[in-house]
């Protein structure tokens, strides 16, 4: 059993988190006015008409910054080069089962171009609404939309070609677009379960991926927190954050928006030279989650190494 000191620290942490959440909860005084937009007069002017815009923006984009503070810039992908006749970049709006794709096309030539985008998918994704052809004037721009249906949590790719035709001469040209890699982290949510359920699912799931630990992080708790933050998973095992032990073994659990469970077991040993070694085992019912999470964990370990190498070079 864990030592009493660790249990006391966990209890104090839970009480502090509960107190902070209660303090952050919005409260309304008894004498505050209630603004109902539907009952306002149409002649209302000035700032009164926008009293509820802040809450609306928070519900819509997760931020009350009207200048785009809730914009997720990691979902913007460059598809073509700056020297191509048509410069294109895509913005993805991931809504669990649906993906809305908006492609900004800029005509960099002095002639009108009939632009058509041919998209293809790889993985459990289906193109529901194909992009429509548009005529883009000289040095003009247009937004071409498409809709994609997602059926499972699996790494997918979008790729295609831009076909442009000169509206006057009829000469066609082709531009191969850069592929768009769908991030599995958009579909993974932290989850919790009992130890008995974890062991039962661990024995039941048939797909396993084993990733060797190779990182420059020297602290066991720091490495665990980095893995948890990078994979959107929940740590089920209480651990000591003082980093006095030479071993660390814990279980992580996450669930996709499609109801698929992902289990991770982290077993790390701190060697005498200070380096960490061990394995991270991933199990799931589907092969896609096990492979995608393994690739994600491998990538974030490599990213840490690259960041520290860049810091050492700057010094």
TrEMBL record:
Every Coatomer beta subunit C-terminal domain range: 30-165
Protein keywords: Cytoplasm, Cytoplasmic vesicle, ER-Golgi transport, Golgi apparatus, Membrane, Protein transport, Repeat, Transport
Membrane topology type: Peripheral membrane protein
Record localization: Cytoplasmic vesicle, COPI-coated vesicle membrane; Golgi apparatus membrane
Pfam families in alphabetical order: Coatamer_beta_C, Coatomer_b_Cpla
Domain of life (superkingdom): Eukaryota
Boundaries of every Coatomer beta subunit appendage platform domain copy: 174-297
Name this polypeptide is given: Coatomer subunit beta
Organism: Tetraparma gracilis
